[in-house]
Amino acid sequence: MAISFSAVAQDLPKASPLGEVEQVVGLTKVEVEYSRPSVRERQIFGGLLPFDKLWRLGANKNTTIEFSGPVEIDGQKLDQGKYSLFAVPGKEAWEVIFNKNTEQWGESDHKDEEDVLRVKARVEPSEFTETLTISFDEVKDDKARMDIRWEKTRVSVRITADATDQSIVNIKEALAKPDVKAGTYSSSARFAIDRGIMTKEALEWAQKGADMNPKYYTLYTLALAQAANGMKKEAIATAEKSMEASKEAGSDAYVNMNAEKIKEWSSK
Prior knowledge:
Blueprint: E1 18-25, E2 28-35, E3 59-67, E4 71-73, E5 76-78, E6 81-88, E7 93-99, E8 115-122, E9 124-140, E10 143-160, H1 164-175, H2 182-195, H3 199-212, H4 216-228, H5 232-249, H6 252-266
Antiparallel strand pairs: 1-2, 2-3, 3-6, 4-5, 4-10, 6-7, 7-8, 9-10
Helix pairs in contact: 1-2, 2-3, 2-4, 3-4, 4-5, 5-6
């Protein structure tokens, strides 16, 4: 009996399986989709991938990266959208390329005129990585480091997605609602204090949060807001109340945080 090969399913394991990674930076979602080749006892950089030659930064269909809002890549502005990722690996530095054509299959489809942004990334030695890995580290303060690791090489680009303006809009919308909870006041105050903005408003919000729900964490935020407004004496007194409440609640972290702030404010 003849076998029809067209009827045989071809859902087979891929040598370079598809991978996805996503990370929220500030309020912006960053999504990367790429095929992940492995070393397989080969020399990768300067071997399989010649130095100073364009690479699709993955295998199979081109790697893509998508941003839900505008960002900066190593200080250079990049609009919201989806891009292809390419690279030109060098011995000491790579050129990482963001290209507007997301429907490409390899280097031969790449056109320089479709490049939107090119940034330099220094080559760093890394622990051996068998399978190409794109990941995020140092995710804090509306910033993240995107790492590309393979073989014994790591290169990184810095992504910044400033969320301050949108966060202020979100705070104002939340505080305008008739059923505002203590946590909303307190979290809004903490955001403003951490960013060093709207400190007078932050004091008002923190006071409301502590009045509505006088827990150790709302009192701690109130102490921070008082200190941010130059009210060191009041801040120390509030932190002492927060520390006592923290001890009763068994929160060692807040006990230590309050103790550190009391020491800091008392010495000034």
